[in-house]
Design goal:
This protein has about 500 residues and is an alpha/beta fold. It has 4 domains: about 1-155, Spo0b-associated Gtp-binding Protein, Chain: A, CATH 2.70.210.12; about 160-345, 3-Layer(aba) Sandwich (Rossmann fold); about 365-445, GMP Synthetase, Chain A, domain 3 (2-Layer Sandwich); about 465-495. It has helices at about 60, 125-130, 170-180, 225-230, 255-270, 295-310, 325-345, 380-390, 395-405, 410-415, 465-490, and strands at about 5-15, 45-50, 65, 85-90, 95-100, 105-110, 115-120, 150-155, 160-165, 195-205, 205-210, 240-245, 285-290, 310-315, 365-370, 375-380, 425, 435. Its EC number is 3.6.5.-.
Length: about 500
Amino acid sequence: MVTFVDRVVLHVSAGDGGNGCVSVRREKFKPLAGPDGGNGGHGGNIVLVSDPQTTTLLAYHRHPHWSSENGGFGMGDHRSGAQGADLELKVPVGTVVKDADGNELIDFTEPGVRFVVAEGGLGGLGNASLATTKRKAPGFALLGTPGEQIDVQIELKSVADIALVGFPSAGKSSLIAAISAARPKIADYPFTTLQPNLGVVQAGETRFTVADVPGLIEGASEGKGLGLDFLRHVERCSALLHVLDCATLEPGRDPISDLDIILNELRAYPVAEGEVPLHERPQLIALNKVDVPEARELAEFVTPELEARGYRVFTISAVAHDGLRALTFALAEIVEEHRALAALIPEVPRIVMRPSAVDQAPFTIRKEGGSYGDVYRVLGKKPERWVAQTDFANDEAVGYLADRLNKIGVEDGLFKAGAIAGSTVVIGPGDGVIFDWEPTLTSTAELITSPRGADARLDDNQRPTHKTRREIYLDRMDAKAEARALLEREREAGLWKDQDGDLP
């Protein structure tokens, strides 16, 4: 069974970045010739590309999970890892991409447009790239960051100049097959067409596209039948052609009532802000199946009333190809008028990318309450990326992370937020990475416990002079001489005796 799909949820996972390498070059007579660990490769991006040769989203309906290549890991001798290849997913022209919350990301209205929907992870730096004048032989490397994993909604909206709308079995598929090279499925039962069909029509010097939108019924704008799924394919059309069945055998139906029902559904369907509502766009009426005698009589009867409403009416027969030439030229005239008006509309203003302000902090600190006390959460692109690049099994790597965080002022921000030694600090959203914060002592100022307004470092602590040191030395020598004289007097007084009772 053929299934038409015009809305799919894609689960995309960009490639992870490769880890950097820790290596030391070893040569003859130079066993430690310096670090030579290479960098890891970047993960591949996932790119959506609008392709005019792609007409359906069926492939993504069957395979909604897509992932790109991971970056290679770095190696010794300054060999960097391979870059992960980008994965290109081709989508039809007219596809709208939205995030999981329904916010529009991009609208592919032209062919050849590329959009990176998921960015690959960054490759980690090897120890050769981390070497500095102070850290000449790093014993660690940075890890690669994981690629972006998101869910996006892709929705197909046909891009056509004219939309054929009408009740099921009104002859829309037969009409598009008669005026173009399109070959849709045609049968004599309702809802034969289960997917919009596009056809290219040549009328004189004008070439335009026509979309055969599946049949609408009453309540289609509220989700009844298939109409709600396909009304979005009418949004981009510049004009509408109502195909009314003049040979229907269903009781209670006639061209006038069919037109009123379709107009009500078009009026109830919401469009994007700034776009013309569907029921206010240029509209023509084609009274179809006039090859049937009773249908021709009905068409001649309702034509004056339709013309009185302001519509241009054409009596046609898609099967007998009757009246199609006049209809196609009238459609071409409307298309030319629309294109001429579109040419007068000024171009879309150029998007200006402005850099972030110089004084904009690269992170924010949020104080949160917890069961075991306050928690200080650090949020920011840089801190979160640095944490993901750190190998916490390596103490040197952890110290390097602390230096990086301190360099951008995270510790100062924690002090200002009220954190003290031992406070719980979380870097990143959700569970993140949890630390018991121990401030880095950049000076002895943190150890001063003197009263406010006093500083023990300002006490008079002058260096002793040569005279002072000589006096101290002489006093020490006099004390030693006095101690020796005291011992001699005690010996002469007989206070000291050996084991036999004799004096020494």
